[in-house]
Amino acid sequence: MSDVSVETEGLRAFGATNAAIAGDIAGAGNMDVVASVSAMTPVFGLIGADYLMSFAAAQVLQARDIQDLSDKYAKLSQAAFSSATNYDVTDLGNAGDLGKAAGEIGGVL
User: Fold this and answer.
1) Residue 56 included in any domain
2) Could you list the residue range(s) of the whole structural domain that residue 17 is in?
3) How many CA atoms lie within 13 Å of 87's alpha carbon, on the beta-carbon side?
């Protein structure tokens, strides 16, 4: 295995950025589909009922897709924070083990 060096603060900054992006995307997808269709109903009337049904279905699908994208960014953020913590814990554990081993053989670490 090759040497691994991880800047955990950079990883946490990446996580924070992706959390903010997730929030922005979720905000953009926060739409009131019922209000949109209700506002358009008087304009299209009975003649445009088929269009309004299609429009409403498209709006619902769009809102779902936007929420899915937001969820992906949120999961990426959580994974980055979790990975940073795991790297820190592992690094501290390995340093402790090396210090203990060095102490047992009379060295100083």
Assistant:
1) yes
2) 10-99
3) 15
DSSP-assigned states of every residue in 10-74: HHHHHHHHHHHHHHHHHHHT---HHHHHHHHHHHHTTTTHHHHHHHHHHHHHHHHHHHHHHHHHH
Q: Is residue 35 part of a domain?
A: yes
* Tokens coding 97: 């083990």
pLDDT at 1 over 60: no
* Residue 106 placed within a domain: no
The domain total for the chain is 1
Phi, psi dihedral angles at 7 (to 5 degrees):
-90, 95
Res 108 pLDDT > 70? no
